Amino acid sequence: MTAAARGARARTDAAAPGPALGPLAPARRAALRAECTRLAELDDAEFGVRLLANTPTHEGRDPALLDRWAKAATAFGAELAADGGARGPGRHGSDVHGPGGDGPGSHQPGAHGHDRHGSGARVVERDGGLGQLLLARYVSRPAPAFELYVDTLALGEELAGWLGWRGWFPAGALREAALAHETAHCLLHGDRALRRALRERVGHTALRLGRLRVPGHVAGADELAAHGYAAARCGLGRTPLLLTAALASAARALGEISGAPLAGTSVGALGED
Fold first, then answer.
1. Helix (H, G, I), strand (E, B) or coil at 52
2. What is the dihedral of CA 110, 107, 178, 9, to 10 degrees?
3. pLDDT tens-digit readout, 116-166
């Protein structure tokens, strides 16, 4: 199904601008809405191609090759989600789909909990993600932890409602998707066989000697696998890359009135350490 066809089905009535978007001048909001509408008209696969094209080492590569790699990596993540992450480490019988964090106040900045996505990672919520365009980050040292940036999440939620995208990104889904995305990074980080399977699936050859073939690493493939995993586990109607691209546009618009430059503009908008 094309993006336009999905749009006809999934768009809901747009909400009024909230506290984040309200300060924008009406003309700037109109320009932002038009920009996001153009993004929504793109096919989901195009976002994967753009992510790879903007990743170092892929400069000048054939877009058809990037498209093939992007689709393979995204499908790998979706299939891993369908398996419940069973091929990854750290599974304790928990379902990956569900709220992250636990305990009173787990949705407040600075709150701590543990991921219920099956990784066992600690969840820490903090501010300060918007300037770097970070929704979440997986930190492997000194102990596995997921950092959630509540300011970026809040803007993403407001943006989805304002644009009428709730059919694709229901209320609360962005937080779940961010946690699922970082869970995928955690699974890949801790399982060499899983990383090797991703390389085989993407199909890049680093070296061939007769019948011997050495699969090569494709920078950005793990990020696309994580996006595919998150979309499948959370039942999103579109790729998370659409919303993060819209977030980049909104953050740039807000930076114009605050005078604060946007440090990151990647459509990934989700990081790991």
1. helix
2. -150
3. 445 577 899 999 898 888 999 988 888 888 999 999 999 999 999 999 999
Asked if 32 and 184 touch (Cβ cutoff 8 Å), the reply is: no
3-state secondary structure at position 60: coil
DSSP 94: -
**Is pTM beyond 0.70 here?**
yes
Tokens of 173: 């889904």
Separation CA 218–CA 216 (nearest Å): 6
What residues contact 214, with CB distance under 8 A and at least 6 apart?
Answer: 205, 206, 207, 208
Q: Which residues contact 49 (CB under 8 A, 6 or more apart)?
A: 63, 66, 67, 70
For residue 199, the number of C-alpha atoms closer than 13 Å in the C-beta half-sphere is 17
Q: What is the largest CA-CA distance in the chain?
A: 63
As a whole number of angstroms, the distance between CA 85 and CA 80 comes to 5
pLDDT tens by residue, 162-216? 999 999 999 999 999 999 999 999 999 889 999 999 999 998 887 778 887 888 8
Q: Are the CB atoms for 202 and 73 separated by under 8 Å?
A: yes
